[in-house]
Amino acid sequence: xxxTNTCGDLRMSDLGKKVCLxxxxxxxxxxxxxxxIDLADRYGITQVVFDPEDLPxxxxxxxxxxxxxKFTRECVVSIDGIVRKRVEGTDDSRNPTGEIEVLITSAExxxxxxxxxxxxxxxxxxxxPNEDVRLKYRYLDLRRTEMIQAMEFRSKLVHLARQxxxxxxxxxxxxxxxxxxxxxGARDYIVPSRVHPGTFYALPxxxxxxxxxxxxxxxxxxxxxxRCFRDEDSRKDRQPEFxxxxxxxxxxxxxxxxxxxxxxxSYVWKGLYGKELxxxxxxxxxxxxxxxxxxxxxxxxxxxxxxxxxxxVKDAPYKIFQNILAEGGIVAGMNLKADIAGEKVGRNDVDxxxxxxxxxGLGGLTWMRCVDGKLESNIVKYFTPEIxxxxxxTMGAEEGDLLFIIAGPWKAxxxxxxxxxxxxxxxxxLVPEDVFQFFWMDQCPMYEVDPVSGKCDAFHxxxxxxxxxxxxxxxxxxxxxxxxxxxxxxxxSLRIHNVEMQRQVFHKLGLDDERIERNFGxxxxxxxxxxxxxxxxxxxxxxxxxILLNKESIRDVIAFPKNKRAVSLLDGSPSxxxxxxxxxxxxxxxxGDLDIGDIDETEIE
Length: 605
Ligand code: ASP
Fold this sequence. Notes:
This protein is α+β, with helices and mostly antiparallel strands. 28% of the residues lie in helices and 24% in strands. It has 16 helices and 24 strands. An 8-stranded mixed β-sheet has the order 6-9-10-24-23-22-17-11, sandwiched between helices. The chain has a 5-stranded mixed barrel with strand order 1-2-3-5-4. A hairpin with a 7-residue loop joins strand 7 (190-192) and strand 8. Helix 4 crosses helix 6 and helix 13 packs antiparallel against helix 14. The longest helix has 23 residues, at 145-167. The protein is globular, with a radius of gyration of 30 Å. The protein starts with 17 loop residues before the first strand and ends in a 21-residue tail after the last helix. The relative contact order is 0.10. The model is unreliable at 599-605 (pLDDT under 50). It binds aspartic acid. Aspartic acid binds at residues 206, 208, 491-493, 536-538.
């Protein structure tokens, strides 16, 4: 290798050294015949200088000048030179190489570059082009320091996780990408089989069934950095493919899995930040999380908790609440204390929040303000003084406090309340930055029952171990989520290892024997061959990296993501294929000529 150093290496201790650097010409400027170049690579930026008045011995001035005249932005060059101290007052303290520069003794153009569509230097806000342009030229976007740092961070995080798991006896085992389509969960990505026309593989939504099979296969501890595919509608922070750190363990209880995960996260934390992470992580039950924070992945870095008011208002002659309570609904309140909200949330803001509440599925939003020791609002006339006093007491309302009261069916109301809580917290600047709060959300139900049809869906997935009678729709499930700052990082559970119980759960989920056999026959059969008690968890690598790096989107920590419309602008996928390819697969397209560019961007939430 000719290169002696990277562009991030050289320091004052290298003064006088003869070096060879190779990299990209990021910026160049000419100061009265002295040419400066910021030479960049993954490791950093070093200033290299062509100084005709101060040429080192052996340097051919004309040859250097001729070669450098061919340099353009982002071309690739090789520079030989001598490390020298920068002229007094021209140091760049933000750059680790900023005290030195390399005086060029010879220069060579290794490859040209056409003009890049956007600037790749350290970006000031607003300089970046829109994301679609960045994604189309992702190989250029990835040259930016911020993206390089994201890739380095992600690589280190995954490496540390692997290290920890290997130390703990886990085997890294790959599971198939081409598998069977199953009816549960999200929509599958389907791959047609040419050899068996009319049949299809599905890309895995997760390695769930295979990792359970590995436990039956006595592997005891499995892990994989697994790519998962889910064909879901486009959303801002969704990707058709994403990466899970997936693991499974035999002969464990829930605490064993959680302890292992806490150990892993702490190890990774120490490796990334050099600091201890506080363990064990706190736990919060599902109902508690919903009823206090309006979310099963609550952001608990700030207050604004809901307090139940159902009992307090049950006798209030206020029709709206009466109707809701008669239908089994709930009433709950959130206190925006005077010191955080006070004057800041005026009447107009309240109207804005009422509108927002409707948008997030709340029927409406009731408010009261504590003025001169009493609750005031346009509806207090419907409440007796005793009830108002009781609301005040239950909510801990003091002078100047503003109460938001939500009411309606349990789940939808708390969920809507959760969105409202988040919005208020963001508006009032209550969300602390740089605080990372991991916790477990547990005590989950096994099923989610549709209030109208009575149909049971799996709360997590159909393989979770019920904590009692599987035929009881209110039974708990041995499952849990790992959460961080209002985000779900991943889910885990103990699994069913008993064939009969698995069948019962499938029945409860509405699958008859014929369907179980057709869709899960192999899986159920596998359980009959001495399946050990087992369980596991999978966490989203993209999301974890995005949160830790404070990125808005997981796309910022994925090298080659699809855009918001699930399109790869880089290679133009998905794309039409030639008719003869379809013919070979015996497939006829019914889609006509709609171009993917025709999809309306505003449809995407
Ligand atoms: N496979 C599950 C998921 O993707 C995680 C697990 O239960 O291990 O959510």
